[in-house]
Amino acid sequence: MRIKFIVPIITREPLDRLKEGLLPYVSPGTKLDVESIRYGTESNESFFDEAVNSIGVLELAEKAQNEGFDGVFIECMLDLGLEAAREKLYIPVIGPGRIAMLCAGDLADTFSVVTVLENSISPFKHLASSTGLRDRLVSVRSIEIPVVSLKDNARLLPTLLNESVLAIEEDGAHAIILGCTRMLGAEKKLTRLLAERGHIVPVISGIPLGLKYLEMLIHLDLSQSKLSYMTPPEKKVDFREGIHISGDVDVDESIL
């Protein structure tokens, strides 16, 4: 089984190190190939980031299918580019956000997302609506730590705990979803700390759950419905003209 793991941001992080950290979450025999987009933003925290980075995701996803991969995983809790990639591909394409919400909706009556910045609140509400679980999502709370500052941030776990307690005690959440893939590893500690406060609730991290779900789909020979995700009509697509994006966005036109 071969899975393409797409990192939908531009990054200088060594991908071999990222891959090594992912191996405990896949089954023996699963071959994981990690690749990042070559142009776009350094994090995904808004609708703008989604729009800019989706083209690179589609490029890598289609290349993965052409190279014979069995499935594609998009590493973004906002499921960046997921709908479009499912239209273009026949192999299963998974994003961790929707799967995390579906799992939370199964394990609990209500759930909250604890994410990075306030900018991500509206996108998560849209994702919950598209998943059919908007009425089960009682809140989206932010810790106000940017994605690029999450690594080795001493504030991360205490702030996650504080917002999760508020989500449970004030918003009525019965489950917590970590709203950024770069919070990976915090779920077990947060579960323990919440339990110490008397809150026995599932804390869901999208990467472990999503990778296992994708493996299951591949094993069962299941993929997205082409009635729901119809293949786009053949037409000319040209990105070489008219790229006018304000802000510090790195666009490598040599690959377009």
| Unreliable residue stretches | 241-256
Helix content: 25-40%
Biggest pleated sheet = 4 strands, parallel
Q: pLDDT average, as an integer?
A: 90
The number of helices is: 8
- What is the 3D shape? globular
The percentage of residues in β strands lies in: 5-15%
Specify Rg, calculated over alpha carbons.
18 Å
The termini sit apart by 30 Å
Give, in spatial order, the strands making up the sheet with the most strands.
2-1-3-4
Order of SSEs: EHEHEHEHEHEHEHEH
Q: Structural class, from secondary structure content? A: alpha/beta
Number of strands: 8
What does this molecule look like?
38% of the residues lie in helices and 13% in strands. The chain has helices at 15-22, 47-66, 82-88, 96-107, 121-131, 156-169, 186-196, 206-219; strands at 2-7, 31-36, 71-74, 93-94, 111-115, 137-142, 176-178, 203-204. The strands form two sheets. The protein has a four-stranded parallel beta sheet, sandwiched between helices. It has a four-stranded parallel beta sheet with strand order 6-5-7-8, sandwiched between helices. Strand 5 (111-115), helix 5 (121-131) and strand 6 form a beta-alpha-beta unit. Helix 4 crosses helix 5 (121-131) and helix 4 (96-107) packs across helix 8 (206-219).
Describe the structure in brief.
Helices cover 38% and strands 13% of the residues. The protein has 256 residues and is of the alpha/beta class. The C terminus is likely disordered.
